Amino acid sequence: MKMLIGILGLTLVVSVLAAPLDDARNAEILRYSSENIGIDGYRFEFATSDGTSRTEEAELRNPGTDNEAIVVRGSYTYTGSDGRIYTINYVADENGFQPEGEHIPK
């Protein structure tokens, strides 16, 4: 029984040591840009060493009217746990958040 417990313990240690590292925790910023246009909108983008990237921009539509609204457009890309690269493009406006991507059902 002691030998079985020892083997199971050794197997656990080996499997933990062999597990891939979570690159997201160690990701470095490769690119970053940000523009604050003021009350009329903003724009930013970044990319990290783990393959994650994001761009987003916003603009104020119909300023000073009852229909004043901010419209946000952007996209982000990441590597899923299955190793596939996913990209989501989106718009957020008076109609809500509207994402699109190959893996998102229509």
Automatic annotation (TrEMBL):
One of its GO terms (cellular component) is chitin-based extracellular matrix. It holds the Pfam family Chitin_bind_4. Residues 1-18 form the signal peptide. Keywords: Cuticle, Signal. GO terms for molecular function: structural constituent of chitin-based larval cuticle. This is Uncharacterized protein. The lineage of its organism: Eukaryota, Metazoa, Ecdysozoa, Arthropoda, Hexapoda.
